[in-house]
Design goal:
Layout (H helix, E strand, L loop, with lengths): L1 E3 L13 H12 L6 E7 L4 E7 L11 E4 L1 H15 L26 H5 L10 H7 L3 H9 L18 H12 L3 H10 L29 H14 L6 E3 L1 H10 L15 H8 L7 E3 L5 E3 L20 E4 L5 E5 L4 E6 L7 H14 L2
Antiparallel strand pairs: 1-3, 2-3, 2-10, 4-5, 6-7, 8-9, 9-10
Helix pairs in contact: 1-11, 2-6, 6-7
């Protein structure tokens, strides 16, 4: 196992990441994840990173990871820029912004419903995405032709394909393609230079995802081509640890010495990060009733996780997670590369950071 040295250009935080690195290394050793890259940034803009590798080697500062559903938090942040500017009413029917929805079964669905997973619409199965590789237009058609199975706003059901309605809204409001809108509204202002739907130019730095059934290099190339064209706003982005730390830092309260741009007002960040599904419950696949804790495009930590009431987070099926804690004044990004990775790994690393923070 290799522990990569801390990259140049970082500033040591008043948090000892040694214990967190030990936790990550233990999970790599026992095979829970193939590798780990994680970092912390605080309200002063100070950040530091750690890299843990297994038999296949260690990731590096510029390694590119598949972000999966972390994409939702990124897209949600871009959507909230329109709210900040007064151009989007979260509770207005999306038909106001997408005339093609007028008179359809989706007429009453709002951006708020999509961001809180309460639209009532059916999702496209993850396995069918891998098998059938639908285009952006086909995914859009699937969403447009859907009809709510429950009244919007009354029930929670995690849904990825509905985020394409937000993508279309962004494109229409910006007068560009969705990918161009995401770039101009978010990734470009934050200098997230390696956050993209098209990882083919970055393939030499790409960390392959294990356990996804696409270990063959030819299949991997085909999948990258598919993701580049599909531009899935619910789970198709690639990115690096430094890029995601820039995003996480921009979502923390601004400290007096914090460098870099701010893309949202603090009031809008607070609205995005609060629990919007208070009192709502769902029945899990195991038949257990549990509390729904959903922010706007982000999720709230489970009650037994670390963090305060203002904390918001989002993970991805490839093992990654962004964690923003405004009260503690820092954010954590954890990345790995195992399909259906146990979420306990990222939470254990984050918990270790809380236990040793200064």
């Amino acid at each position: 196992m290799t522990l990569a040295a801390e990259p140049t250009g970082t500033t040591r935080l008043p948090i000892d990441l040694g214990p967190a690195r030990q936790v990550a290394a233990a999970h790599v050793r026992d095979g829970s994840v193939p590798c780990a890259a994680f970092g912390v940034i605080d309200t002063a803009g100070r950040s530091t990173c750690e890299f843990v590798g297994g038999p296949g080697g260690a990731p590096e500062r510029e390694s590119v990871f598949f972000l999966a559903s972390i994409t939702k938090g990124i897209v949600a942040t871009a959507v909230m820029r329109y709210v900040d500017e007064g151009r989007l009413d979260l509770h207005a029917p999306l038909a106001r912004y997408l005339p093609k929805l007028e008179g359809s079964a989706l007429d009453g669905v709002s951006a708020w419903h999509v961001l809180t997973h309460t639209s009532g619409l059916r999702d496209m199965p993850v396995d069918s995405l891998r098998r059938e590789r639908p285009t952006y237009q086909r995914s859009l058609r699937f969403a447009l032709e859907s009809a709510p199975v429950t009244e919007p706003g009354t029930a929670y059901a995690y849904n990825s394909v509905t985020f394409i309605l937000l993508a279309e809204m962004m494109a229409r409001l910006s007068g560009t393609s969705f990918a161009e809108a995401l770039s101009s509204r978010l990734t470009q202002p934050l200098d997230m230079v390696d956050t993209t739907f098209d990882a083919r130019p970055l393939r030499e730095r790409l960390i392959p995802v294990h356990g996804s059934g696409i270990e063959n290099r030819l299949v991997q190339e085909l999948m990258m081509r598919f993701l580049a064209g599909a531009q899935m706003p619910g789970g198709g982005l690639f990115g690096t640890l430094p890029d995601l730390l820039r995003l996480a830092g921009a979502l923390l309260p601004a400290g007096p010495a914090a460098p870099g741009p701010r893309v949202l007002s603090q009031a809008t960040i607070d609205e995005m990060g609060r629990n919007h599904t208070e009192g709502m419950t769902q029945i899990t696949e195991a038949g257990v009733e549990r509390e729904v804790r959903q922010a706007l495009g982000w999720r709230k930590p489970q009650r037994d996780w670390p963090g305060g009431e203002r904390t918001f987070t989002h993970g991805g099926m490839s093992g990654g997670r962004i964690w923003v804690d405004p009260e503690a004044g820092f954010a954590v990004v954890f990345l790995s590369n195992l399909w259906r990775a146990p979420l306990e790994v990222s939470i254990a690393v984050i918990d270790a950071i809380y236990r040793t923070r200064g």
